[in-house]
Design brief:
By secondary structure, this protein is of the alpha/beta class. The chain has helices at 2-28, 40-74, 78-99, 108-112, 114-132, 134-141, 144-158, 173-178, 180-186, 198-208, 213-231, 250-261, 270-278; strands at 168-171, 193-197, 237-240, 264-266, 283-284.
């Protein structure tokens, strides 16, 4: 099927070239005024036949070349191809704009060849610039909030082992709803800072708005516990505004955040406790 498509495309290209260039050929051999030879149908037919004969020899090589190109492209990342295509398009557009004055010149080379060379050169430069600086382009197109989160994560990951840092106690939904964490925190048993991620707060709000009366009561009690913790001057409470959009489950987000901050997960969830132990994340149950 692929070879047939290539053959058809070559024949169509040959027909188009025949209509465009065969009149010059008839003029060169002195048959320019012959209506039987120098007409659109004849020129189209001759061009199509010539390129059909050429396709008998070229179609196999073209098919092999296309397969090779397809294989090489499949090895490249989607990001690389996307930025490369955008850079090439921008380069070609700039080339078209720059080439416009050259079309008004009567010099054959300048009028016919120079615009083509300029567009090819700028298209290539656009491709090179966009693909060699992908990380820089990503930073430009990333939102400021996301950049701040990534910068904070990078700083935390790059700190030395002997650096002084706060030990976070990351509360999950179950331990907040349970309520006893408030009394334990007041005794000073939980040293460091209690950290409440936004995605846990959203889950509490979802439970508090539930149609199930039992869930609704539990969710509202959890929100009351958080408010009580924040009002205690002796208890350090912070919110974490970041989110891990690529992760759906709240428990998985908690574990990733604990790894990122070297924090300890505080939970009543037995399954979360076991998963955290398996992933070497400290847990207070």
């Amino acid at each position: 099927m692929e070879k047939r498509v290539i053959t058809v495309l070559l024949v169509v290209a040959g027909a188009s070239l025949g209509v465009s260039f065969m009149p010059y050929a008839w003029t060169a051999i002195g048959q320019g005024g012959n209506q039987w030879l120098d007409n659109v149908f004849t020129n189209l037919l001759i061009g199509a036949i010539i390129f059909y004969l050429l396709s008998l020899f070229l179609v196999k090589h073209i098919s092999t070349a296309l397969t090779y190109i397809e294989k090489k492209l499949s090895e490249l990342s989607l990001t690389y191809l996307l930025f490369g295509a955008i850079g090439t398009i921008i380069g070609l557009l700039i080339g078209v704009i720059i080439s416009l004055p050259f079309y008004n010149w009567d010099v054959p080379f300048v009028k016919g060849v120079a615009p083509f060379l300029i567009m090819i050169l700028l298209g290539y430069l656009g491709f090179q610039i966009s693909t060699t600086r992908i990380e820089e382009w990503k930073k430009i197109f990333t939102s400021s909030k996301k950049r701040n989160e990534q910068q904070a994560e990078q700083e935390l990951l790059e700190r030395n082992a002997d650096d002084h840092f706060r030990k976070y106690k990351i509360l999950d939904t179950s331990v907040i709803i349970d309520g006893r964490v408030y009394d334990i925190a007041k005794t000073g048993f939980l040293e460091g800072t209690l950290l409440i991620p936004n995605f846990v707060l959203y889950e509490l709000q979802y439970i508090a708005d539930s149609g199930d009366s039992l869930k609704r009561v539990r969710g509202r009690r959890g929100l009351d516990i958080l408010n009580a913790l924040q009002k205690e001057e002796d208890i350090s409470v912070e919110m974490y505004d970041g989110d891990f959009e690529e992760i759906q489950e709240v428990d998985s987000k908690l574990l990733k955040l604990a790894k990122l901050l070297d924090g300890t997960v505080v939970t009543n969830d037995y399954n979360l406790n076991k998963v955290a132990e398996f992933q070497n994340v400290p847990v207070l149950n």
